[in-house]
Amino acid sequence: MAYSITQFENNLSNSLVALDQNFTTFGALVPIPCGISGTNTLTLTQNATGLVPTQTIQGYSTNMIFTGIASGTNNGPVQAQVGSLGLLNVYKDTLTGPQLLVGNEIIQFNAISLRYDPALNSGAGGFHLTSSTETVLTPIAPSAVQINNGATITNLLSGNSPTLTFTATPGWSSQDQPFTLTGLPPAIPLVGDFVAVVPPSLAATGIGYAGFVSSVGSLSSLLSVATVMVRLINSASASLASNSGVYRYKAERVVP
After folding, report:
1. Which of 132, 154, 203, 232 has the most Cβ atoms closer than 10 angstroms to its Cβ?
2. Which of 119, 116, 92 is nearest to 28 (CA)?
3. How confident is the model at residue 19 (pLDDT cuts 50, 70, 90)?
4. 51: Cβ–Cβ under 8 A, 6 or more apart, which residues?
5. Mean pLDDT of the chain
């Protein structure tokens, strides 16, 4: 729409109406503040009162942005609608393109924005989600990490062991309990990788733990299996009971 300084000069009867229409047009081109209710089904209500009330829109337009404060945290896919307009899917932008939400992309009391895109959902239309939460949680997946020109970390794995059962260990001795990890290389640790283990509860004074990979073998042309050993070390003189249960582990591969 074109505007000129003479637009309202010779038509006093409808100048205020035209001016209102101009404000409505401009209002649809900037982020539209809304109240938001719901968790997985969002209802956005345009601001109607206050210092800056907004004009009610009659339909969605490409790149129209709606902003507000989330009233709940989603735990699955999300749909949203503005007023009585259509209920549409909400998508997060990823490295492989827009994806439906799965949970925790919208966090209660955090600010969010929804940008309308008519091409989403095979042309049915939808919203792109923008939130600081999603930006923070977006993972990166480099093949190696080097910090301050130091050693290069090429693999980092963590998880839980199955239940390991240790018997009482005599003084000044150790006891080993193994568990196995199966997967596609490099998704399993190798002999020589650093392995740290954490017991399921506080160990008795004198008991310590060490982890290491004792062997790696092949189950098939694709799958490999690694045997991870948890070594209980009793440095006390008396026989001590040990902690049985699920151990947390971290395996780290570092290239000097």
Report:
1. 232
2. 116
3. very low
4. none
5. 86
Could you tell me the end-to-end alpha-carbon distance of the chain, in angstroms, rounded to an integer? 64
199: DSSP letter: -
Beta-strand relationship, 79-82 and 32-37? unpaired
Domain residue spans in the chain? 31-137, 145-255
Tell me how far CA of residue 62 lies from CA of 76, 115, 153, 188, in angstroms: 26, 8, 44, 47
Partners of residue 254 on adjacent β-strands: 153
- Rounded to 5 degrees, what angle do the CA atoms 156, 160, 161 make? 115
Residue 48 is which amino acid? A
E strands in the chain:
32-37, 41-46, 65-69, 79-82, 88-94, 97-100, 111-117, 126-131, 145-146, 152-164, 173-183, 194-198, 207-218, 224-234, 245-255
Name the CA dihedral angle for 89, 90, 93, 94, rounded to a multiple of 10 degrees.
Answer: -70
Instruction: List, for residues 78-103, the tens digit of each pLDDT value.
Output: 999 999 999 999 999 988 899 999 99
Both tokens of 94, joined, read 């990823």
Give this prediction's pTM: 0.49
| Torsions phi, psi for 163 (to 5 deg) | -65, 125
Q: Are 164 and 230 in contact (CB under 8 A)?
A: yes
Residue 53 identity: P
**Residues 50, 56, 61: CA angle, nearest 5 degrees:** 130
206: left (phi over 0), alpha (psi -120 to 50) or beta: left
